[in-house]
Specification:
Largest sheet: 5 strands, parallel
Radius of gyration: 13 Å
Low-confidence stretches: none
Structural class: alpha/beta
Helix content: 25-40%
Strand order of the largest sheet: 4-3-2-1-5
Number of helices: 4
CATH architecture: 3-Layer(aba) Sandwich
């Protein structure tokens, strides 16, 4: 099953922890999972990649989690997606809509 998770909460919040744990659980069950980061969640792409939240995200990416970040929100916070050092793809509102339309389930952890 293709599942999309939307996250707008910053790293080190209950919502972010819940999103990463949910993604991990779904991947372990064999689902295809995409995480879309917007608003404060784009801070997962920040320059401080040695933080534990980034390490968890990196581990999930290694387990086939697809991650997109809303480029507009990242740019507003001074974060360049292409230089984040992680295999995270820039996205737009159009790519978010496409993800929502092509996913069988959508989980919003806002």
């Amino acid at each position: 099953m293709k599942i999309a998770i939307l996250l707008k909460s910053a790293p080190f919040t209950e919502e972010a922890d819940r999103a990463l744990q949910s993604a991990s659980d779904m991947l372990a069950q064999g689902h295809s999972v995409s995480l879309f980061l917007l608003q404060e969640a784009v801070r997962f792409c920040g320059s401080r990649l040695k933080r534990t939240d980034s390490m968890d995200l990196r581990r999930l990416i290694e387990n086939n989690l697809e991650v997109q970040v809303l480029t507009q929100d990242a740019n507003m916070r001074g974060i360049e997606v292409s230089t984040s050092g992680q295999p995270i793809f820039g996205g737009s509102y159009e790519s978010l809509i496409e993800l929502l339309e092509t996913s069988e389930r959508v989980v919003g952890i806002l």
